Amino acid sequence: MEYIIKEFLLFLTYSFIGWVCEVIYCSFPDKKFVNRGFLIGPYCPIYGFGALAVINILTPFSDNPIIVYFLAVIVTSLLEYVTGYLLERIYHLKWWDYSNYKLNIHGRVVLHNSLIFGGLSLIAIYFLNPILLNMINKLPLSMRYTSSLILLSIFLTDNIISTLNALKLNTNLSKLHMIADEIKETMSEEFFIKLKSIQSDEELSQIRVLTNKIDELNQKFNDISKQNKEFVKRVFAAFPNITSKLHKETLINLKAVNKCEW
Question: Which end of the chain is more exposed for a tag (fewer CB within 10 A), N or C?
Answer without folding.
Answer: N
